[in-house]
Structures are given as structure tokens and as C-alpha cells.
Amino acid sequence: MAMTRKDKYQEKFRELFGSYPELTGSSDPELMEILQKMIFGDVFSIGELDDQLRELITVVLLSVQQALPQLRSHVGAALRIGNSPLAIREAIYQCAPFIGFPRVLNAVNTMNEVFAEQEIALPLAASATVDEASRHERGVAIQGELYGSGMRERFAKMPEELREPLVDLLTDACFGDFYTRDGLDTRQRELLVFCGLIAIGADFQIASHARGNMKAGNSREVLMAAIIHCIPYIGFPYGLNALAIVQDL
């Protein structure tokens, strides 16, 4: 017999969190049931994304939104479904150039609390693959492959003494410091960044990173499935706007 929506959400919830959903005693059981059925009964069945990737996307969305209680739960779920601590850490670190360091530090603190509770030794292994002498060259290579020279052209009207340091700062900090790290590959990082940008409604960057994703190996169908996965966490307006951008590329 085909699984019902209720069967799907209860089984997926158990896979992720280790127990079946329990609404008894909840102050708002109706809302929780709607939420759980939508996320785990509906959305997890849409598109060809594996559960490990879905949970990394969720970790990024909750980090961006500073939904730290929910982040705590989903860091645990990401571990349970098979993600390494290193992959989870890198997913959160990768948010820094796009949402700033203060919010990333908050998310990292929450992540580390979960790791400590699960007796995962901290700090995790270092993942840097560049040093001061190589970060710029490596960053230029990755950025150029995905985006060409668009950043410099975009700000061509800025005074050169401001434009050139800005372009180098983005290349070195975003691509040199983060995209070069071990733990996630470029294709994964691009998709996680794309989802984080959707969560903050950065439409111009969404279009740019959709193209970058396709150059990195993520198909249009993968991008659309990832957007749909985002909707319960960010709402339909941001999700539908992003789908329209990707559809029209």
C-alpha cells in the first residue's frame, strides 16, 4: 500500500530525529502537526535531493535566520542522517561572507553545543587549504570559473582606489578563504550559498548564483527542488520569487 501523508511525515521525522513526532503536551499541537506534515510529509518528497543535502540546506537557512532553537534540533538531525561534523561546520562557515560574522558566530556556538553534547571533540580538524601567499590566486581561479570578471565590471564607475580593494576583498574573503576549504566541494557550497541568498531575498545575487550553480554542476531542476525545500522555512513569497528568477534564466 502507498504511504499516506501522515505515514511519510512520521517516518521521515523518526529518521531525522530518532523518534516519532509527539504532539501530546504541546501548547500548539495543531500548528505543529501542520508544520510537520508540510515539511516531512510533503516537501521531503519533492525533487531529487538526498536527505543529507536537505539537512545541510536547512542548517544554512536556520543560521541565516538566527532561528537558533530550531538550528540546535537540525544540527542533531544532520548528524543523525549521516552528515559529518566537518560538513555541518563548513555549511555554517560558508554563510559568513553573505550574512556577516556575528550571526555565523551565533550559529557556530549553537552547533558546538550540540557537538559537545554528542561528545564530538572540539575544535574539529582544520580545513584550510590556502595560506596568505596562495589565497588570492586560488580565490581568483574559483571565482573566475564560476563568475568571470563580473564584479569588477559591475562597479566600474567606482573610484579605482575603492573599487580594486573591494573586488580583491570579495575574491579573497569569499572564494579564497571559504570556497577553498575542505569538507564541502564547490558544487555543494554554491547550492548552500544560493539557498542562503534566497532566505534574505537577495534577488540580484540569486540570479548570479543560479548561473554559478549551473556552472558548478547543479542543474536547473536541482535548484528548483532546493528552492521548494526552502519554502517552509522562508515562506512562499521568497520561494516563488526565486523560482521565477531561475525559471527565467
From TrEMBL:
The keyword Lipoprotein does not apply. The keyword NADP does not apply. Residues 29-110, 167-247 form the Carboxymuconolactone decarboxylase-like domain. The chain crosses the membrane at residues 191-210, 222-246. GO terms for molecular function: peroxiredoxin activity. Keywords: Membrane, Transmembrane, Transmembrane helix. It comes from the Bacteria. Gene3D superfamilies: AhpD-like. InterPro entries: 4CMD/NDH-1_regulator (IPR052512), AhpD-like (IPR029032), CMD-like (IPR003779). Signal peptide: none annotated. This is Carboxymuconolactone decarboxylase family protein.
